[in-house]
Each structure stands twice: as structure tokens, then as C-alpha cells.
UniProtKB/TrEMBL annotation:
Stretches that traverse the bilayer: 65-84
Tagged with keyword Transcription regulation: no
A Pfam family per the record: CbiQ
Subcellular location: Membrane
Membrane topology: Multi-pass membrane protein
Key words, A-Z: Membrane, Transmembrane, Transmembrane helix
Name listed for the protein in its UniProt record: Energy-coupling factor transporter transmembrane protein EcfT
Length: 264
């Protein structure tokens, strides 16, 4: 069983060629701006900006929308909860008669739609970054952005390496679980039945699963030790990149847009 832990889509585009550090910084600013947006004007501006970025990234819109399917359930719950509660002040619908009071149910529905749209836009923005950046690029970007913390003796390289290994072990865990399940099934283990039977079968797979994972971790530790990981001296990179004029311009424009979304 193969588990794809990265949503990366190999497709050439201006967004794909952008430095991952810029995309990570803009994603963080985008998240804060959406959390601070309290009006339909701000959220509408964010939606238009995201649509433009999605078009520039040349990603298949259907695939991006389908990848965020679990988020739609959360957004629907937020809409339903606010519509049923019907209390609080609803955000004005931009310039559409903001002074006209709304009934309690309509006010709750308007507020819920605003919250749900913010959640969906946040998920879509994260998917644009993950679909246009490899896991290695994102890890290197994190290492570069955390580099100033070295002054405080924070092991930035170790943190980035740990994150990369954690991401890599997700598919390995899935493969090990599939191997254990197939081995028990071939030996006649009862893996079906009701919920209780399935839980008991799953509990029986935990011991061999962890044994296999610890075996992989021990092999990884020996491999890292054989390659002198942790040796003194600064670490270097084969493909070190510097931010150019285009990256700085995109970063400035993106941050200005995020400020506008938060203030509207």
C-alpha cells in the first residue's frame, strides 16, 4: 500500500517557480488575515485573490477542490451551528443595505456562511502551497526561516530534519500496517465482523506494528550515524537559493493584500 503524503503536482507555473520561503510566509500571513477578516468585503477580496493565484498556478481546480473535501463538512457544521443559534451580530453584507437589521436566524446564517467561507479559503490556500511545493522544498524553507533562532541556540537543523523524517514515516507506517494486516489475514485471523471485533483485531496488530517501526527507526539511526550526522560545523546545501527581485515583489504584494483583507 502506497500513501501519498504530499499533494505536490508537477506542473510548471509562476507559482511553482516561486521560492518556497515566500509561499510559506504568505501562507502564514494569509491565515492571520482570514482570521481577522470580519466583513464580506474582506472575505470577498480574499476569494478573488485566491482565484487569481489558483489560475496562475495552473493547477487542476477539480483536484484541489476535491482534496479539501473533509473541510467542507467542518464548514457546513459551522454554518448550521450559527444558523441554529441565531444570536450575536451578523457581519454587514458589504454595501448591500448594511443598516437594515436582520432576523435572528438570518443573522446567524450570515455569520455562519462567513465563518464557513473563511475555513474553506484557508484550506484552499494551504493546498495551493502544498500542490506547488515538494516536501523537501517546504522542509528547506522551514530550516531557512528558523535560521535566526540559532542565535538562541535552537537546533534549527535538527528540527527541520525531524519534521522531514516524521513526514517520511507516515507512508512507512501505512505500509507496515498493511504488511501486518496481510500477514495476520493469511494466518486466518478474524479481521472482519462488527465494531468490537474490528477493535480487538486492531489491538492485536499494534504490537507487531510497533516492533516493525522500531526496527525501521533503528536502521535509520545506524544509517545516519554511518553518514556522520551531527558532526560539528555548519551544514551546507547543494541547491542554495536566494530571493530575487521577483520574490521580494511577490512577498510585498502578498503582504499588502493580506493587510487589506484584514482591515476591510
Amino acid at each position: 500500500m502506497r500513501l501519498n503524503v504530499t499533494a505536490y503536482i508537477a506542473r510548471s507555473s509562476p507559482v511553482r517557480q516561486m521560492d518556497a520561503r515566500v509561499k510559506v510566509c504568505l501562507l502564514a500571513a494569509w491565515s492571520v488575515a482570514l482570521l481577522l477578516a470580519r466583513s464580506w468585503a474582506g472575505v470577498g477580496l480574499a476569494a478573488l485573490a485566491l482565484a487569481a493565484v489558483l489560475a496562475a498556478s495552473r493547477l487542476p481546480a477539480g483536484r484541489v477542490l476535491a482534496a479539501a473535501a473533509p473541510v467542507y463538512a467542518i464548514a457546513a457544521f459551522a454554518v448550521a451551528f450559527n444558523a441554529l443559534s441565531g444570536s450575536g451580530e451578523a457581519p454587514p453584507l458589504a454595501a448591500l443595505a448594511p443598516a437594515v437589521p436582520l432576523p435572528a436566524a438570518a443573522a446567524g446564517l450570515s455569520r455562519g456562511l462567513l465563518f464557513g467561507l473563511r475555513i474553506v479559503l484557508l484550506a484552499w490556500g494551504s493546498l495551493v502551497v502544498s500542490c506547488t511545493s515538494t516536501s523537501t522544498e517546504l522542509t528547506d524553507a522551514l530550516r531557512s526561516l528558523l535560521a535566526p533562532l540559532r542565535v538562541l541556540r535552537v537546533p534549527v537543523d535538527d528540527v527541520a530534519t525531524t519534521l522531514s523524517l516524521a513526514v517520511r514515516f507516515i507512508p512507512l507506517t501505512a505500509e507496515e500496517l498493511a504488511r501486518v494486516r496481510d500477514a495476520q489475514w493469511s494466518r486466518g485471523a478474524a479481521l472482519g465482523g462488527g465494531l468490537g471485533a474490528r477493535l480487538r483485531a486492531g489491538a492485536g496488530m499494534m504490537a507487531p506494528l510497533f516492533v516493525g517501526l522500531f526496527r525501521r527507526a533503528d536502521a535509520l539511526a545506524r544509517a545516519m550515524d554511518a553518514r556522520c550526522y551531527g558532526a560539528p560545523g555548519p551544514r551546507t546545501s547543494l541547491g542554495a537559493r536566494r530571493l530575487g527581485a521577483r520574490e521580494w515583489a511577490a512577498l510585498a504584494a502578498g503582504l499588502a493584500l493580506c493587510v487589506a483583507v484584514a482591515l476591510l
